[in-house]
Structure formats: structure tokens, C-alpha cells
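Side project, low priority. Logging it here so it doesn't get lost.
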Amino acid sequence: MSFARLATATTPTAHLGLGLAAVGRPGYITLGREDDLPARSVEALSERAFELLDAAYALGVRYLDVARSYGRSEEFLADWLRARPDIRDVVVGSKWGYTYTADWRTDADAHEVKDHSVAAYDRQRAETADLLGDRLDLYQIHSVTPESPALTDTELHARLADLAASGVTVGLSVSGPDQAAAIRAAVEVTVGGERLFRTVQATYNALETSAGPALAEAHDAGLTVLVKEGMANGRLAGPQAPEALRAAAEATGLGCDAVALALVLRQPWAGVVLSGAATSVQLVSNLHATAVDLDAEHLDRLADLVEEPAAYWRTRAGLPWH
């Protein structure tokens, strides 16, 4: 299945994808990892990734998201694809621009290092090709901010245009309190008169909605929007969820996670919303988002949860790497 076909699919779970950030490396900032992943050897996380991928596929999920910086996520996905040769209808997206540096430790001083240079692209593109080969459908620059050289480096743009000409969709992910500015700048990047980026992946959830207008503009300009961190790294799930979200979940009979993801799915510009589940039980609960029906009262109360972007991103930056 091509990325373009995925963007126009109409099955119940067509707009939900599975990201392997939580299970591709032993340390991450999602809350509750001690309970979700008591064993985090390479073998244990490979087994968990296979379990999640099998469950996601069986439940109709067809978009799978990895990255060079997600530890061994590309490797785990590549192994799963080789072990399931009859599965040809999934869309695979990866990202370059961060290098994983923790060496499978949870107490590393730095877990990843950002580099959006041409040299970094050339190195990481080769690494991704070695693992995923022709199964790669989408390649995104990881965590672009307004000051990133990736928005202005014409040599890099030429490399990415060549990749697009080979059939791989080119996009970017954004992060930080100025996501909207990065999105708007990316929409204006062209090569040979053609828009370079065809997708944008951004953080959007009940606490952080500031990118919404820019994402709507990107959608109107023809880009497919992917949403990450719909549960705010666990802040909108389980005991961490705010009271308004817990009340809405109780009213619907579904989990806080499903309600949080349903809020994102309500956005007309949301093309693919990612689940970052670490267990199959979480994945099933996440996918119940397609069944959530919220009334006006709950929607009004949930709208009051929005935080100032700077405050949201300060909190996120303070989350420990468990």
C-alpha cells in the first residue's frame, strides 16, 4: 500500500498508526514504563515489538512509525516484515536527524543527538536502507524547529528531492513551542517549483493544541498530517489523567487514552494519529478511540485543559527517561 493510498483509506482504523518509540529502546520519557516494560533486554523488546505489530495488523492498523533514534525500532520492524513476507499492505515511515547514543542504557547522559546536516542525512539514509530496503514509504526529518538548517539547506533539499523522485514520500516532524512556525516555513519549501514536503508530523493533544491552525493550513496545502504524542507521553492516560478526562472516559465507558486520541481524530486535518502503546492491552484500548462519542459538555470541559505551549514543553522536557 502506498502512502497516498493510506491517506485516503476509509476503514475504521485507517487513521490510526502504531509508533515503536516506546519499545525500540530501553529508556524513554513515557510515564509508567516500569509497569509496562519490566524486562527491557534487546530480546525482550524485540519480542514485545513483534507482539504489538501482530496485534496492530490484526486490528486493521496499516501505518507503522519508526526512527533512526528509536534504538532498534527499524531493526525490529525489518525483522517483523521479513518474518511476515505475505504482509505487503502496510505503510512504513521512518525518520532521520537524531542519532541514538544511549547504547541500550537508561541512565545515559544523552539518549539522542540532533543533526540535520547533509552528512547526517547521507549516513542515516544508508543505515535505514540497509534495514528497510524498498519497504520504506515515508522518510521524515526528525523534530524540525524554526531555526533548523533543514528548512534552508538547498543541498539537503536536492538530496530529499532525489529521494522523492525514487518513490519515497518526503516529510518532516516538528517539535517544541514553535511548531506552528516550523510547519508554515516547511510548507513554503520548494525544489524546481514543486513543494518538497508532502507530510508533517506534529505533537497535538488535549494539553497542547497550538499547532492546530498551522496543521489545518498544511492540510489545505495538500500535506498529510500525522499526529504524535496524542496522550502527552502518558499524562493523559491512567492515574495521571486530569479529572475532566477521567469524567469523559467514565461517561463513554472507555479509557482515558481512547478519549484523548478521539479528541485528535475529531480534527478534520488529522490524517494519521499514532498510538505509542507499549502493551497489546494498551493498543486495543487506544484503538477504541474510533468508538468514542463525546457530548458538548464534555468537549467544553476538555477544552479547558489546554496549556500554554511554553509551559507544556517545559513539562515535557522535565519528564525523566525511565
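Brief comment: The chain is about 40% helix and 15% strand.
Revisit when time allows.
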